[in-house]
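User: Good morning. I'm curious how NAP would be positioned relative to this chain. Could you predict the structure with it bound?
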Amino acid sequence: MVTPLIAKAGFDPGALAAASSGAGPRRLVILGATGSIGQSTADVVAAVPGRFAVEAVVSGREPLRLAAMARRLGARLAVVADPAGYSRLKEALQGSGVKAAAGPQAVLEAAVQPADLVIGAIAGAAGVEPTFAAVREGRTIALANKECLVCAGAPFMQAVRRFGARILPMDSEHNAIFQALAGRTGADIDRMTLTASGGPFLRWSRQAIDAATPAQALIHPNWDMGPKVTVDSAGLMNKGLELIEAHFLFAIAPERLDVLVHPQSIVHGLISYADGSSVAGLANPDMRVPIAHCLGWPERLDTGAGRLDLARIGELTFETPDLARFPALGLAIDAMRNGDGMPTVLNAANEVAVEFFLSNRIAFGAIAPLVRQVCEEAARAGLTRTPASVADALSVDHISREMARTVLA
Ligand SMILES: NC(=O)c1ccc[n+]([C@@H]2O[C@H](COP(=O)([O-])OP(=O)(O)OC[C@H]3O[C@@H](n4cnc5c(N)ncnc54)[C@H](OP(=O)(O)O)[C@@H]3O)[C@@H](O)[C@H]2O)c1
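Assistant: Good morning! Here's the predicted structure, ligand included:
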């Protein structure tokens, strides 16, 4: 007897249509509007004029880029999280009709503006609270921010169900799985596979990887992404975070989740069914494709995206990941299997480690050992219990960051 793998994870075909304001444009709130996902979202919105009305755009500390984005999208409200950015934001928006606000409370208020779809694209655990605010309002959320699920997976998904919110997976691998599921609920799923490009260090020796510089880690062969996720990709931590994301999002058991290295980044996710059939999601490595899928869902938007030309690509190759050269992936898999609060600790320690690496304070090869040490210390300190709530997960996140900083000091 195969146990059901996918609990009701908030997917409900037609839900977005039902949540929409009717015949008018679909109302969007974009959290993380100035980032890589935010920019790609703006490209999709611009490709289908009249289909979307942008209610609010939110960024971290970049008031000028945010103002430019708000003007480009004709947003009603622009909010920068850093209160120090307020005067420059207000000045840059003068005469535009866009309302300006700043500070963490204003970010939470932006997240709950009436909207048909909230784009969750803030980088890191900073995205948890604003995205969760939208969950509590029962919004439909196109989720790129994997840290919501890695940091606070179980309580976050419980809240999604409790408040009648919905998650549309925007991360390319999860979006591919979502499309391959085609509304099925999972009892007959044998395996779910996420692919990884392998990043810039795919053919490097362990020694060379350990000594890699930020400049080397920030060159991704296939994807143009923000710095945190690009560094995570270079060490395959990103794939580990995505496994944890899939585990919570699709309620699939850890032992049924796999990773395949696929350097061409054309096949993004794959489901193997009990009868031996496999269904894969394919697309060019361009985030505008999964973003358009989420923005249009359940319809398809014609955004003029480049079509997939398999004859031109010619070769699709697959290999198993090398955990000896990429220990971060093994750590994330262990944290997922360990369950409870271990992914929360892993995510926090990794964010601190990446921040230190990007500012040249630790070597690339020090990231995984730091994460391992913090996970072990947190387990000894009893911090890895299942978070009782999203707030509890955020408090474990906070303590784990302090632990990581202490170790690094
Ligand atoms: N990029 C991709 O292709 C990709 C693919 C799949 C999933 N994802 C996930 O999507 C998320 C965003 O990735 P990204 O590559 O777009 O990152 P990014 O380029 O670094 O952009 C991050 C965005 O978050 C904003 N932000 C940061 N801290 C904030 C805070 N405290 N409050 C409000 N806004 C804040 C930033 O604003 P400022 O610019 O003002 O700091 C920026 O708009 C990550 O979780 C990533 O793992 C990304």
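Confidence is low (pLDDT under 50) at residues 1-21. The pocket of NAP is lined by residues 32-38, 58-62, 81, 107, 121-123, 126, 144-147, 171, 223, 225-226, 228-229, 287 (CB under 6 Å).
Let me know if you'd like a different ligand tried.
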